[in-house]
Write a structure and sequence with these properties.
Length: 313
């Protein structure tokens, strides 16, 4: 049985938390009122840029497939995988992309859409999505070089996650000039996506990235691990010091600094979007000592965990 927990603003239904057969956790989703859940408006717009709806899901235990016929959606969709994996399929059921943590994919209007959020008892997938439209969208995406790129990497960015959440909040509350605010936030989201692609996609030396891929995937999937640099190096059969050199050259950070960034970005998201205690957030990010976690977090954000939470609520 599906149970929905709803908040309704101005005849718009917001699902803040929902459990779908104990498998799908909807942190938030917004659209027009529909059949007891919610639906996202399906329309084009004469505005330069307009957001139709957005959401944030966690998939547990079993895969979930989304399917839309060609021509069904009239707007664009931008998917962003925070953790886990999403498989993109074409109309012949052939895999054309596999999104990992920190990667995006754009569906244009009227495209055939079929994608699978992958999950099992040992792994969850967390994903953000947004539907948008407008007369300037195609030129914006071309200028940012993030159209017709297939799956592309932007990194696991707390700034991007924050922008999805802020757009959701504006759609929810609909305060004065909210559409203008959303347009600005959407432009920022696309700008950060373009910046992330420039940093994590084009500038990574392909041969090094392919060598490091198992380590990067391991760090994103198991960021609470206390693996040493030597253990990471052995995963890809490299000398520890050579591993550190090419990792820093490819990723812009040392291996442990990169893992710390993943932990801090995840902590920021949890502080903003959940009511977990700070001690619990420290533990899930690999820190048994809450005070040590707080020192690292403040070094990273210039705010204590509690100050960060208070300033983002």
């Amino acid at each position: 049985m599906t149970e929905y927990h709803k908040i309704v603003y101005n005849d718009t239904e917001v699902i803040k938390v929902a459990e779908v057969n104990n498998n799908m956790h909807i942190l938030h989703g917004i659209g027009n009122r529909s059949d007891g859940s919610y639906s996202v408006p399906n329309c084009s717009s004469e505005e330069a840029l307009h957001v139709n709806g957005c959401g944030h899901y966690i998939i547990r235990q079993n895969d979930i497939t989304t399917y839309r016929k060609a021509g069904e959606r009239l707007d664009w969709q931008l998917l962003y995988v925070w953790r886990g994996e999403t498989v993109i399929l074409d109309a012949q059921e052939q895999e054309i992309g596999r999104m990992q943590s920190g990667q995006m994919y754009i569906y244009p209007p009227k495209a055939y859409e079929k994608y699978i959020y992958k999950a099992d008892k040992n792994r969850e997938t967390e994903v953000f999505w947004i539907h948008f439209t407008g007369t300037e969208v195609a030129s914006l995406l071309q200028n940012y070089d993030i159209w017709e790129t297939g799956v592309f990497s932007v990194g696991k960015s707390a700034e991007i996650a924050d922008l999805y959440n802020k757009i959701f909040q504006e759609l929810t509350l609909q305060n004065a000039f909210y559409n203008d605010v959303i347009t600005g936030l959407m432009r920022m989201l696309l700008s950060y996506a373009a910046r992330g692609r420039a940093q994590y996609g084009k500038n990574v030396e392909k041969n090094h990235y392919e060598v490091l891929a198992p380590v990067i995937e391991e760090m994103n999937a198991n960021y609470a691990s206390d693996k040493s640099v030597g253990e990471y190096a052995r995963m890809v059969h490299l000398d520890k010091y050579y591993f550190i050199t090419i990792f820093k050259k490819s990723m812009g950070l040392s291996p442990l600094a990169y893992r710390t960034k993943i932990r801090m970005d995840n902590a920021r998201t949890l502080l903003q979007s959940t009511n977990m205690r700070i001690k619990e957030i420290a533990l899930v990010n690999g820190y048994k000592d809450q005070l040590y976690f707080s020192r690292i977090f403040k070094k990273y954000t210039n705010l204590s965990p509690q100050e960060y939470r208070d300033s983002h609520r």
